[in-house]
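Input record (one chain):
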Amino acid sequence: MSDDPSKAFDSLRFAAAGLLDVVETTSYGTPALKVGKKLLARVKDANTIVLMCPLDEKEMLLEAAPEIYFETDHYKGWPAILVRLDKIPSEELRHRLEQTWLRQAPKKLVGAWRAGKG
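The corresponding structure, as predicted from the sequence alone:
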């Protein structure tokens, strides 16, 4: 992968397609996606994204797929996981982002999204 973070953000955008009220913004000076004021994910660098993730799920992902998911000391104890974009299949990224959106979005919005899928 290159040093250009825009490709990483393109991957996030693609994975978020169809999720309601997702806005493009910045977080810590890098491109990010939020629903309302809640962070879903942000670009860390050209090869890595930060995905919001509950701690119990984070531990499971770190153990199950260390080639994809990792953390640095900075993220230990925080509900966020680092994702290697060159290792994660696009369907997996979509699934993880969708799960994050389902946790972060207002219940009414989740209901509308589920109704639209059914």
